[in-house]
Amino acid sequence: MSVKLHALCLLLVLLCLSWAEDQTCLTSASNCDECIQSGPECAWCTAPKSHIRCHTLKELRRAGCRKRHMYNPQGRLQVVMNDSSIKPSIAVAMFIQPQELSLRLRPGVSHSFPLTFTMPTDQPVTELTMDTSHVPAGLNITFSSIVIGNPLVVQVTVEAARCPSESDDLTQKQNRTGPWSVLITPRGFSLSVKMEITLECQCDCTRNREKNSPGCSGLGDLVCGQCECQQPYAGQQCQRDSESFISPNEDFCRSGPKASVCSGRGKCMEGFCECESRVNPKERYSGQYCECSNFDCPYHNSSICGGRGKCECGECICDDDWTGEDCGCSMETASCMAKNQNLCSNNGMCHCGKCICEPPFTGPTCEDCPVCQGTCRQHVECVECRVFGTGAMKDRCDQECGYLTVTLVQTKDEMPPPGESIASCKMRSSDDYCFFYYTFSSTPSGGEASVVRAKECPHGL
Question: What is the pTM of this model?
Answer without folding.
Answer: 0.50
